[in-house]
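Practice problem: predict the structure.
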Amino acid sequence: MNTPNKLTVARIIATPIFMATMLIDFPYHYTVALFLFIAASLTDMIDGKMARKYNLVTDFGKFLDPLADKMLTTAAFLGFMYVYGVLDGAENTTYGIQMTVILFIVLFREFMVSSLRLVTVSSGGKVVAANIWGKLKTVSQMVGIVFAILAYALVVDFGLISFKPVFDIIIMSIFWISAVLCIISGLIYLMASKEYIDPSK
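Answer:
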């Protein structure tokens, strides 16, 4: 296994550890979760650049890298479903519902795109390249998650409780932007792949 693939595997291994630091209440656990998420996200940037620069691109890496990304972001969204649905209780019930809807949109898009990739490849077509909307979706998710964890680190770990209502509004706004970008990029990917979709086969 080459170094880029090892970094990808390391990101997968880090994902449940990251999620545990979000859910388990111990001193400065959100701060720890923040550093873990950033470190895991950096491996995504490093492994891709390394693989391309040193000609270490493999089929294993092509399959596992996007899967590792989805695992990491899904773990973060699930963590905030817990934060808004359990930790905050009745205080932020509407936020809990919104997080559930946002996660549904994210997962629906990812399952659809992954299925379309399988269909295009099995039909002898080329893999449809990621479009600018897909890249914006990914960036908005990463920015939203980093800000959300940072905000809760400031509120819970460092006692800036008075800022929590403002932080929550900003967090949900960014997450909704990422959800809208999920829908747009998913529809564009669907249109780009329609020639390979044949219900009769």
